Amino acid sequence: MNAPAPLSGLSIRTADLADPGEFARIDGFVRSTPGSSIFHRPQWSRAVELGSGQRAHYLVAERGGAITGCLPLSEIRSRLFGNAMVSTGFGTGGGVLAESVETRESLAEAAWALTLGRGCTGLELRGGELPGGWEPRSGVYANFSRELSADADALLAAIPRRQRADVRKARAHGLEVSFGADERHRAAHYRVYAESVRNLGTPVYPRSLFDAALDQLGAEAEVMLVSLGGRPLSSMLCFLADDTIQPYWGGGTGDARRWHANDLAYFAMMCRGIERGCSYADFGRSKVGTGPWARKRFWGFDEQPLVYGLRTIDGRQAREINPQNARFRLKVAAWQRLPLPIANRLGPIIARGLG
Q1: Which numeric CATH code is attached to 141-305+338-345?
Q2: Which residues contact 207 (CB under 8 A, 6 or more apart)?
Q3: What is the DSSP letter of 323?
Q4: Which of 3, 16, 124, 240 is 20 to 30 A from residue 59's alpha carbon, by CA?
Q5: Same CATH fold, 141-305+338-345 and 2-138+307-319?
Q6: Helix-strand-coil split of the chain, %, nearest 5
């Protein structure tokens, strides 16, 4: 698409992420623009498209040959959950990244025109300042973060007493922590994560999505495993970018709680951030009222309510994918009882449509 605005000299088009020069220009703009996140990076859009099959549309605003804004979009198509444009697919952030109000509003309108043109019924912005007239949605998710201490000893002293005790118990059990992006770490992470989300009653994403994220982000992504005698108990796929470490896809097996593996995972992840020169840890979003949300609060992380933006055709109800919704309770309970091999076979087919 190409949507010029001749009076202001602003033009909006869909970027060609297969062009190395274009890819590098966009990545440079995102990295240098305040308010950006890893979900604005072209690597994320490419990973989602390669890993889930959901088409990427990356909108770029330019004036005088210089990029002034961008809006990464994923076209999510699902027979169960409906069709929508999302910024960004499988991300907890995104939205319009722009240097001016004019650019922000123009990108949002171009995205809406694309949404209609592709036959989607709604557009979701998962971050950034909302354009005028958009419906805000709040109270569903909260994000958690904290500043990192200078070293591991100071970090241990700074965490709440109960969690500090649990970390020490985990260490006494002889749990091992390792990091990597090789096949052993990838396969182990997927086994742990798949069991964890099945126990929560939600379908697991395709492994190809995790592999694509690791491949596209390279040195800025890795898997952390917490194991006992070589048996993985807890795992996190983490991102390290922009002075921040972010554990993103993580979970634990049914035995993780017994050995305090998840507590050690949180602590080890923060230590890894310190080791890699990060100043902050971003623990991502959790649905308000869920177990992960409560666990992050127990750890004393800073909680920030998230506000997303929605726009739907003719005021239609936005698609609903929150498993906390009453209409999903029976389905969640049924999924929790599925044998793991069946859940792992069916889950990726369904989860591709969640976005």
Answers
A1: 3.40.630.30
A2: 186, 190, 348
A3: T
A4: 240
A5: yes
A6: 40, 30, 30
Taking the domains of the chain in order of start, what are their residue ranges?
2-138+307-319, 141-305+338-345
Q: Which amino acid is at 136?
A: P
Rounded (5°) CA angle 126-128-132: 100
| 126 close to 92: Cβ distance less than 8 angstroms | yes
Q: Count how many Cα atoms sit within 13 Å of the Cα of residue 263 in the half-sphere of its side chain.
A: 24
**Residue pair 78/130 in contact by the 8 Å Cβ criterion:** no
pLDDT in tens, 194-246: 999 999 898 999 999 999 999 999 999 999 999 999 999 999 999 998 899 99
pLDDT tens digits, 90-124: 999 999 999 999 999 999 999 999 999 999 999 99
Closest CA to 58 of 79, 74, 37, 77: 74
DSSP string, 183-251: HHHHHHHHHHHHHHHHHHT-PPPPHHHHHHHHHHHGGGEEEEEEEETTEEEEEEEEEEETTEEEEEEEE
Which tens digit of pLDDT belongs to each residue from 286-339?
888 888 888 888 888 899 998 899 999 886 666 666 656 666 678 888 888 999
Find all residues with CB under 8 Å of 257, minimum gap 6, and list them. Answer: none
**Could you give the CA distance from residue 320 to residue 315 in angstroms, rounded to a whole number?**
15
- Cα–Cα distance measured from residue 158 to residue 136, given in angstroms and rounded to the nearest whole number: 35
Token digits of residue 18: 């297969």
At the topology level, CATH places domain 2-138+307-319 in Aminopeptidase (3.40.630)
